[in-house]
Design goal:
22% of the residues lie in helices and 34% in strands. The protein has helices at residues 2-18, 32-38, 145-156, 162-180, 302-315; strands spanning 22-23, 41-56, 60-79, 84-90, 92-94, 97-101, 112-118, 122-123, 130-134, 137-138, 188-193, 204-210, 220-224, 230-232, 236-239, 243-247, 255-260, 270-272. The strands form four sheets. Strands 2, 3, 4, 7, 8, 9 and 10 form a seven-stranded antiparallel β-sheet that branches. Strands 11-12-16-15 form a four-stranded antiparallel β-sheet, with no helix packed on it. β15 (236-239) and β16 form a beta hairpin. The longest helix has 19 residues, at 162-180. The chain is elongated and about 100 Å long. It starts with a helix and ends with a helix.
Length: 316
C-alpha cells in the first residue's frame, strides 16, 4: 500500500511538472557587437503575423503552445536574408491558457524589430536579439537605425558604402529635426465682447484667445454670413497673439466666428450672437410714411421699437 501511494504521488508530481504555465531558460548576456558577430544576418523587419497554436491539436493547449511568426524584411544590416523570415517560438496563448518562456521574445503584428538571426529561423541571445524599433530609433539603445547599422557594420567588419552612410545620416537628421520642431498650435477663441453687436453698423468686437499671431499679415476673422457662407471682417483695428479688435462686417449673422492666422492655422468656430444684421438698405427718401398696428400680444412698445430701428438704419 505504501509503495502504491508513493508511486501515485510521484506520478502526480511528474504530471504537474509536465504542464507548467511558465518555463525557464538561461541565456548568457550579450552585447550588440557579440550578437552581430554570432548572427548569420542582422535585419530590420516588420512583424506581419504572430499566430499561437497548440502543438498537439488532440491535447489542446496543455499539450504545449508555440507561436508562428512571419516578418517582412525592410533592411539588411549584416549578412544575407530572404525578404520574408518565418520562425516558430515556444510560448503563446491558446484557449485562455498562457505559456510564457523566459528569454524567448514575443512579437506583435505591426511592430518593427531589429532581429539578430541565427540560420534565419531563430534569434541570437533570446530577447536580447529582438529589439523594438519605434519612430526610426532602437528602443533598447536610443540610437537611430542608421547609427545602429554602423555599429553592426563595425562589429562584423563590413564596410558600409558611401551611399548607405549618406542615406542613413540624412534619414537620422530628418527624424531628429522633425522631433525637435514642435507642431504649431491652432488658434483658440476664448471669448468675444461685447455681445450682440450689430453687423454693418461700424460697431467693434474684441476677440480674446491664444495663438492668433503677433501681427495680422494675411490672417482674417470670418463671421457666419447672413446671406452667404462666410463674411470676412474688412476693418481690423488691432491684432495681437491674444486679442483682435474688428468691426462686425455688413452681412454677418449669428453663428460661428473663426480666426485664421497668417500661417493658415484655423480656430474652431466660436458661436456669437449678432444683434441685427444690416445689409446696407436705406429709406428711399428722407421722409417716409408708415403705419404700425399695435396689436402685438407680448409688448406695447411696437411703435418705439420700429422708430428706433428706422433711426439706426438711416444712421449708418
Amino acid at each position: 500500500m505504501r509503495f502504491r501511494t508513493l508511486f501515485a504521488l510521484a506520478l502526480g508530481a511528474v504530471f504537474l511538472l509536465a504542464c507548467p504555465s511558465r518555463a525557464q531558460a538561461a541565456v548568457v548576456p550579450m552585447t550588440v557587437e557579440s550578437m552581430s558577430r554570432a548572427a548569420s544576418a542582422v535585419v530590420v523587419a516588420e512583424c506581419v503575423s504572430a499566430v499561437p497554436r497548440a502543438v498537439s491539436p488532440d491535447r489542446g493547449a496543455r499539450g504545449g503552445i508555440v507561436t508562428d511568426a512571419a516578418f517582412r524584411v525592410t533592411d539588411v544590416l549584416s549578412g544575407e536574408s530572404p525578404d520574408v523570415v518565418r520562425m516558430t517560438l515556444p510560448g503563446g496563448e491558446v484557449d485562455g491558457l498562457v505559456l510564457s518562456v523566459s528569454e524567448v521574445p514575443s512579437f506583435s503584428a505591426g511592430s518593427t524589430y531589429v532581429l539578430f538571426l541565427e540560420a534565419g529561423k531563430a534569434v541570437v541571445g533570446g530577447t536580447q536579439g529582438a529589439l523594438v524599433v519605434r519612430n526610426g530609433r532602437v528602443d533598447a539603445t536610443g540610437e537611430s537605425v542608421g547609427a545602429f547599422a554602423r555599429r553592426v557594420a563595425d562589429a562584423t567588419g563590413r564596410k558600409m558604402s558611401l551611399a548607405e552612410v549618406l542615406s542613413a545620416t540624412i534619414a537620422a537628421r530628418a527624424r531628429d529635426a522633425a522631433e525637435s520642431v514642435a507642431p504649431l498650435a491652432a488658434p483658440v477663441i476664448n471669448g468675444m465682447t461685447p455681445g450682440n453687436v450689430s453687423a454693418g453698423t461700424g460697431s467693434s468686437v474684441t476677440i480674446s484667445g491664444t495663438g492668433f499671431g503677433a501681427t495680422q499679415g494675411t490672417g482674417a476673422v470670418l463671421f457666419d454670413g447672413h446671406e452667404s457662407a462666410v463674411v470676412t471682417a474688412t476693418v481690423v483695428t488691432s491684432w495681437s497673439d491674444t486679442a483682435i479688435v474688428c468691426e462686425v462686417p455688413r452681412g454677418a449673422g449669428s453663428g460661428p466666428v473663426i480666426v485664421r492666422t497668417a500661417g493658415g492655422l484655423v480656430s474652431a468656430g466660436y458661436t456669437y450672437d449678432v444683434g441685427f444684421s444690416y445689409g446696407g438698405y436705406r429709406w428711399a427718401t428722407p421722409s417716409e410714411t408708415y403705419r404700425v398696428n399695435p396689436n402685438t400680444a407680448d409688448t406695447s412698445a411696437e411703435l418705439a421699437m420700429i422708430q428706433a430701428a428706422a433711426a439706426s438704419w438711416n444712421a449708418v
